[in-house]
Amino acid sequence: MTEMHISVAQLRKSSIDLFKAYGLTEQDAEIVVDCLIDAELAGISTHGVAMIPAHIRKMRAGYNIAGELTIEKSTAAFSVCNANNMIGMLSAWKCMQLAVEKSSESGIHMVFCHHANTFSAAYCYIKYAVEHGKIGVVCCNAPAQMAPLGGTEKLFGTNPVAIGVPANVEAPFLFDMATSAVAKSKINQAMHRGEKIPFGWATDANGHPTDDPKVAVAGLVLPMAGPKGYGLSMAIDIISGLLAHASYLDQVGRFYSSDDICMNVGHTFLSIDPVVVFGEHFYTQMDQYLHRVRTSKAAEGNTIFVPGDLNRISREKMLIDGIYLSTKTVNELNELFEDKKIAHIVC
Fold this sequence. Notes:
Blueprint: E1 3-6, H1 8-21, H2 26-41, H3 52-60, E2 70-74, E3 78-82, H4 88-106, E4 108-116, H5 123-131, E5 135-140, E6 161-165, E7 173-177, H6 184-193, E8 202-203, H7 213-218, E9 220-221, H8 227-242, E10 265-272, H9 274-277, H10 282-294, H11 309-321, E11 323-326, H12 327-339
Parallel strand pairs: 3-4
Antiparallel strand pairs: 1-11, 2-3, 4-10, 5-6, 5-10, 6-7, 8-9
């Protein structure tokens, strides 16, 4: 599949104009686009710019464009919010923002959100917390793709969890993972490219191993590390889904569906203010911690990386070279831009 290098500034401006044309305010359009571009820059392309056409389709019929985040219950420790079927990146950003603000007062604050939609990469929200000097933890449930260990019935999503920790001089710790062996979107990517997938990613509908992405899409995604991924996925489903008054197990709605109703995904956002909990010198201590790991002895031919380093390297490269997009994605975006008389993106 041919790739094209697209200017980040050009892509950002045209994409913001597109979301504004479909009813978002400029500020909200910037939040949505920056989340998608941040995912792309970090190398999480499965959750990045290629998702814009799908979100625009949902804006035509599905999302509550005029919706606002509603705080239904709040204490010093936690808030329960209703996303009211907003576009997922927007409600997630506002939930993380709320958690960060509240944690400055109490030292720690958790936000549970229901009636939400898919929110791109959890990485975007821990990055926001870290940029504001906070430790961020984000998790959510997702449409069922995995069976209980040893089963064949889809009950659990690939339920991601992400943790970010700021430092002072050293680049921060930014960890984002799915609880499945691989994100479902990577299997879809392989299918669209006509590639095989590694054994261990998925099975067919009867639980037999497969390297065929078409069979895998109709079958079951496997949990990462067997019972560990299974247990973690289940825990996230309980905390982010059931506890947050959202859907859970196989009741979570699908993003690619024709019913145009809210997915009712459950999102959880935790912010910890390390200054309140630990003291002002936390960031210096974290610098020492990260430096010790990065400068530890590597095996021959290897380099020691901390979670987030590869995302940062990817970001730095793309800010210079441009974002790498497939010709297919560029053509889809330009069709949307043309329909709203917005400047095309060019390589």
